[in-house]
Amino acid sequence: MIFCSLYSGSSGNSIFVGSENAKILVDAGLPGKKIDEALESIGQSPKELDGIFITHEHTDHIKGVGVISRKYDIPIYANDSTWCAMESGLGKIKEHNIRVMDKRTTVEIKDISVKSFNIPHDAAGPVGYTFFSKGKQASVATDFGTFTEEIRDNIRDSEVILLESNHDIEMLKYGPYPYVLKRRILSEIGHLSNEDCGKAIVDLFSNGKLKNLFLGHLSNTNNHPDLAYQTVINVLNENNIKVNVDLGVAIAERHRPSNYIEF
């Protein structure tokens, strides 16, 4: 399988997942041109995409979806609640490209199985995804305020995971956001902090299959890549997990493709 974060952060998100035969996007939260450029920079053609899987309807996850679907005649997969919430913002989508899936289901795209699972976030029907192909497994789980048992059970056997590490709690508390927004981010349906991300990684690592972990969806206002990385590393060190020996940990970058991995 191929896994690559094209863009990750509060300003826009998109992930490429590929296999020998299938090519998939998870979200397209930037202009279509930016998605095209990112795919081409990693040697992939947007014309060959087999589908776009949507995690939820927030703008930083769907901004370029309609444009890409229309330009290349690509199916869009999302659950009914998400479709209802985002459809008016996508523009005209061809009927055969509207693919409605259940919140907890598995969809087959050539030689990749895509399994969706619920996540706690303040959106209509937010989900994460796990991808299976020929014994390999990868997961995307961002935009959630609590690391739930359902999330853990659906991603714990993955070798590669992109996981939420959205904010530093102190930066958020003393930062410029209004109180209502701070409270939303810190809630159980908000976003995961750096420290809680580290704790989730410890839990996942105990299963023994995780090889590469990417810290994603960092806030531009309430976080910094170095701070997110070091906070997570501190938690792992406290639990005797050696980074780059036991586990690879890296930041999914905001403005360019990163973390390209074949496994």
TrEMBL record:
SMART domains (alphabetical): Lactamase_B
Entry's transmembrane regions: none
Domain Metallo-beta-lactamase: 11-191
Pfam families recorded: Lactamase_B_2 (PF12706)
Protein name: MBL fold metallo-hydrolase
